[in-house]
Amino acid sequence: MLHIVACIKQVPDTKVAKINPKTNTIDRASAPAILNPYDAHAVEEAVRLKKRYGGVVSVLTMGPPPAVKAIRKCIELGADEGYMISDRAFAGADTLATSYALAKALEQIAKQRPIDLIICGKMTIDGDTGQVGPGIARRLDIPPLTGVNKVVEINKEKGYAIVHRKLEDGYEVVKSTLPCLFTVEKEINDISFAPLPNMIKAARYYPTIWTANDLENVDRKQLGLKGSPTIVSKIWTPPKPKGGEMLEGTTEEKVEQLLSIVLEKKELFQS
Prior knowledge:
By secondary structure, the protein is an alpha/beta fold. The protein has helices spanning 37-53, 68-77, 95-112, 132-140, 196-204, 251-264; strands spanning 2-7, 10-12, 18-19, 26-27, 33-35, 55-62, 81-85, 117-121, 144-155, 160-167, 170-177, 180-184, 208-210.
């Protein structure tokens, strides 16, 4: 019986989100809040592993009270229970402070039921850093396996996991001890449709919510804005790339024009 915890986040839908011209940050009120797409695949994989090996899937998030909706979405996908840490003390957290707070919550969950595997999405669409998962693993002193696109085997009795990690030119097969942490690619699975019983359960579900005071051995200097050494000073929409330049004239004239352009940009071809 495995105990798998999926760490998730509620994020603004960046397909429709706008940039606040005064603050140069994402205007979260301009877009609906959704379950981070990469995290949805993390939950889906956790549920599939539960069906394959047996066990329990928990989900954990940090956020304001409305983030309960993201946990309910995970219950629809097949998760068994949810935990949320919510407190003004967590506000303004960067990836360092976020990984610290989530690690403390995971330690508390593990006291209730030992954790065999933690699964995170590769990254969140509102930050794109991919730092929280490895940060959690570092704080818990467990192996981080990033870019996982296939889980080959989980063997709790012998204490190991075998996965495929995505590389630029293929993949590598990695064996790790348990417990460990995965960050997963979207291609690891396809999201299943939620069955009606799960939807009914999710509509009525209310997660366990902890404040900073509920977590044990917490250094408040490492929480929220106080524990965040990085600051996003500006976000902007990149300009649209210019269209290609059409060369006109005879074949000889086009060759001369092309050669002239290449010579002007020769520094781009120098190693």
